[in-house]
Specification:
By secondary structure, this protein is mostly beta strands. The chain has no helices and 29 strands. The chain has a single domain, classed as Neuraminidase (6 Propeller). Helix content is 0%, strand content 52%.
């Protein structure tokens, strides 16, 4: 088992970590409704308070932080920590937000796509053109579950496109090192889909029986629920895995293996940072921790952050 180094604790369901050039990390605390900075010594400070359910974060071409906000959850609290449970009682919809890191000002960019309102935006990744792909996992109610979708949008709020629909709880998303393939993880199915990009916000659709036009990269079976993901420099898709806690590493050809990180069933996010991008930062959300471990190879640089 890899050796974990605890960076911070006491976080309120952290996700969406970003390893910043100055050595700090940004992440969201979903239950707290904040964008939070974590220093190398573990000290935390609130950058902004979007409220609702900030779920994913990425740095855009203007240096601002862009957030996928799911609109909020209800929460179950116990001795082992907290976990999300269905749609918040005060839910008003999902949204995409821009945060000015200097002032903490939060601006709402999108609340709907071309065909439907945003239900539960979850994760996002910027391309080299200054736009970003994002997943909308949807929301869960007592006897209903939204169908999921993938979108592409411009960072200035001027355009949004529907890329792929329908999906079953699309969660993590990332780009291949050459920027030509979009990867999307589905939580409930434990699958990762690949979409060949032909233009910004446009993908080559595979024929039926693909439900959304993607190529299935891998489906691992068992009780492996997929959350967010990051891509390494060799093009392997590294997926944070729930309930069989750890990181599932999937090669570009679809072969996979699992790196166990026991101790918290909610291993939710991974990002790369540190010297040569060879440190993996992982959120253990139920117990409210951010940890680091040495990774076997460098991460793939992110557009507008590591390049």
């Amino acid at each position: 088992m890899p050796e974990l180094r605890e960076i911070a604790s006491g976080l309120r369901f952290p996700e969406g970590p970003i390893a910043m050039p100055d050595g700090s990390l940004l992440l969201v605390e979903i239950e707290r409704g904040t964008l939070t900075r974590v220093e190398g010594n573990g000290r935390t400070s609130v950058v902004a308070t979007p409220g609702g359910g900030p779920n994913g974060a990425a740095i855009g071409p203007d240096g601002a932080c862009y957030i996928t906000n799911n609109g909020g959850f209800e929460w179950i609290k116990g001795a082992d920590g907290i976990r999300p449970h269905m749609q918040a009682h005060d839910y008003k919809g999902g949204r995409i937000e821009r945060v000015d890191l200097a002032t903490g000002k939060v601006e709402v960019l999108y609340t709907k796509g071309p065909n439907h309102k945003l239900n539960g935006p979850n994760d996002l990744v910027f391309d080299a053109h200054g736009g970003f792909y994002f997943t909308d996992l949807g929301k869960v109610r007592d006897r209903e579950w939204d169908r999921g979708c993938v979108y592409w949008a411009k960072a200035d709020g001027s355009e949004i496109k529907e890329v792929a629909f329908p999906l079953t709880t699309p969660n993590g998303c990332g780009l291949s090192p050459d920027g030509k393939v979009l990867y999307v993880a589905e939580t409930q199915t434990g699958r990762v889909w690949a979409y060949d990009i032909v233009a910004p916000g446009e993908v080559k659709k595979q024929p039926w029986p693909s439900p959304s036009g993607g190529r299935m990269l891998a489906g691992v079976g068992g009780y492996n629920l997929f959350d967010s993901l990051a891509v390494d420099a060799d093009g392997n898709v590294c997926v944070a895995t729930l309930f069989n806690p750890g990181i599932t590493v999937i090669s570009p050809s679809g072969n996979w293996r699992h790196i166990a990180l026991p101790g918290d069933p909610y291993v939710t996010n991974i990002c790369f940072g540190g010297p040569s991008l060879k440190t993996a930062y992982v959120t253990l959300s139920m117990s409210g921790r951010l940890v680091a471990l040495d990774w076997e190879r460098p991460g793939c640089p992110l557009n507008h952050l590591n390049t």
